[in-house]
Write the structure tokens for this entry.
Amino acid sequence: MLSQRCKYALKAMVDVARASGASRRVSDIAERENIPRKFLEAIMVDLKKGLLVESARGKLGGYRLSRPPDLVTFGEIIRLIDGPLALLPCASRNFYKRCEDCEDEVTCVLRRVLIDARNELAAVLDRTTLAAALAGSPQSQFAAAVLADDSSIPAG
Amino acid sequence: MLSQRCKYALKAMVDVARASGASRRVSDIAERENIPRKFLEAIMVDLKKGLLVESARGKLGGYRLSRPPDLVTFGEIIRLIDGPLALLPCASRNFYKRCEDCEDEVTCVLRRVLIDARNELAAVLDRTTLAAALAGSPQSQFAAAVLADDSSIPAG
DNA sequence: AAAATTCCTATTTCGCTTGTGGGAATGATA
DNA sequence: TATCATTCCCACAAGCGAAATAGGAATTTT
């Protein structure tokens, strides 16, 4: 399950994406999406640090996407806020961590299954972009190819 | 991510499945799988209440599967211990709960995406059985058909 | 009767999540 | 310059659940 924080982040990103390039204020997003304002402020800072949005301060300030919405995937947002998509760290690609209590990870039956599961889940989330979601149809192979991040993959 | 509890449950179920019908003691499972014994005791009781295993007390006591291993899926175990597979309750099939802060759930863009995600994830976990996992190949369409539990599905 | 097991109840400890509050830094406007 | 509205930063508090641990009751075999 996603954290409340992550759910808010996703809703906020969808909201910002709807602005088609324009800026949106935190207070407006918060009111529209029913998110506590101060809490959302902190979340937006995280999204900014993750380079998913850009910000402007002052009277005409607000947040806007730092990329076109067809280049921002749900998987990317979720990883930034909540971390791994996989059900266990040992089955994660981007947040791999060895299973402490596991004798032999390579032959671990459980891990094999959970890697299958994570791959299917990641396939959906890394291919579905904000643009696709707003358009209704869930596909954008282009973004999936562009955004594929295959760094630091465990051997086993 | 799965809880530690759920990871232990999965490892224990795989361990019990390896016994091919025989009983296994909690202390043996705990030692083999590196799980705190008292903690595992509580987990096994949960698995028993969920009808996934049967128990015998006393000197020759222990746990065994209550069904053949090709009729026990990973999805079933995870749901019993951790609850929904979906990333949000409003995208869950077996643990559906309305999203409080959501104005119109039917048209919610986020929910549509997360339902896709949950369906892909559930497809893997509900079709992969203990038997299939132990055999190495991940498929058992038979079990998926038998165990499909389509009760209480939200309309929207 | 003794030993070994499952099973039940209570408690503890710890860290994380979900916020709230105050105010500093920044930028537009008059 | 003064004012106002915004992002941004820091601290903290309350609550909650997860992960155990402990002790012993109930049950079954020998």
Remarks:
- Chain A is about 50% helix and 5% strand.
- Confidence is low (pLDDT under 50) at residues 138-142, 144-156 of chain A.
- The longest helix of chain A spans residues 109-127.
